Amino acid sequence: MSTPTLKVALRTYPYTEALKSGTVAVSGAKLEFEEVKPHIAAFRRMVRDLAFDACEIAPTTYIIARAYGVPIIALPVFFVRRFHHEGLVVRPGAGIEAPKDLEGKNFGVRAYSVTTGVWKRGLLQNEYGVDIDKVNWWVDDEEHVAALKLPANVRHVAEDSSLVAMMAEGKLDAACTGDAGIGRAGKPGAGWNESGPALPDDLRQLFPNAAELDREVYARNGVYPIHGTLAIKEEVLQANPGLARSLYDAFVEAKAPYLQALRAGTATGKQAEKDRKLMQIVGDDPLPYGLEANRASIEALIRYGHQQGLIPRPYKAEDMFLPF
């Protein structure tokens, strides 16, 4: 039996570069990488056209796609982690002093199913009692899963406008920052987030003590938000028994030197700086892989997705992720 070659879309991180360079091999398979820029375009190609054998994909996009019958399944490998008290800004004069004040207000997020937005709504609803059905959610991009039906309180900005313009005009009261909201100049495309758009300079963080709150909530519920997972076409795994385990083991092997360098204090670069800050909250592995190590986070994302009308029922973690 010949060794299969898998077409893979995956960004380069310090903990994936060994796989991409070939230093770490996958037993029983060859990986052929396709660079997609911006990588967000690969999400859509995967869930709409099954364009890759394996693809790094936003976990919310993935669970929605799987719930809607797209024949893909994911490894419990997560490439980006972050907490979500930070990156939620409010406009002075909007009357928002506490999270509950968001009810009845206009909130901007790039797409309703963007994972950052899902985590932030989940935090607001489950930790702070915000009725998210009473918030007007404004979006200016399309959802990755075209079949998704959005709640009635989700509204699309006018074709000649944007979240940035709405915020500048005082029509938004709050928004996500960064790529998930008002930190980019347009829809995903070449150079879409290379320079931040002009925004009012008096926007303020709803949670000025974000790091402290992140620590408190994590200590209470153990939820460590996941971003970026590896979705694989089911037919590829069915045709190659043992491949899923080989892929998982290879990702664990590729991460090990980076993790060792982080613990030793020798890892450098922006990713290492971010991960060292996270280690102050979550301990000595800021990038835990495996189903059990991530069960609380997986179950929270599934629960939030169901609460927010993105998936039809509250699936089990094992329904969505392979049991490694």
TrEMBL record:
It comes from the Bacteria. Pfam families: Phosphonate-bd (PF12974). This is 4,5-dihydroxyphthalate decarboxylase.
